[in-house]
Amino acid sequence: MLTRLERFKLIFVPQLIAAGLVLATFKRWQDHDWLWTVVGIILVLVFSAISIATWHLAEEQKRERMRERMRAEAPH
Fold it and tell me: What is the pTM of this model?
């Protein structure tokens, strides 16, 4: 199970990297450096996908904990 801080880091860090890549890609695009522009766009998509997948994993873990707690509290 991920702690709240670990979830935050796993979601925030890829988004921060993606934001930096967006800025770097935009600079390359202005310089007409198309290869690095394409590489930057692909990396932004990869880091965004990692962040989204991590967020979904964290949400699923949270739902599973809620289900377990409901089962434990339910009268038998």
Answer: 0.59
Per residue in 27-60, pLDDT tens?
A: 777 877 778 778 878 888 888 888 888 888 888 9
* Token duo for residue 21: 């890549």
Burial class (CB in 10 A: 0-12, 13-18, 19+), 50: middle
DSSP string, 11-58: HHHHHHHHHHHHHHHHHHHHTT-HHHHHHHHHHHHHHHHHHHHHHHHH
Burial class (CB in 10 A: 0-12, 13-18, 19+), 1: exposed
30: left (phi over 0), alpha (psi -120 to 50) or beta: alpha
Q: Where are the domains of the chain?
A: 4-71
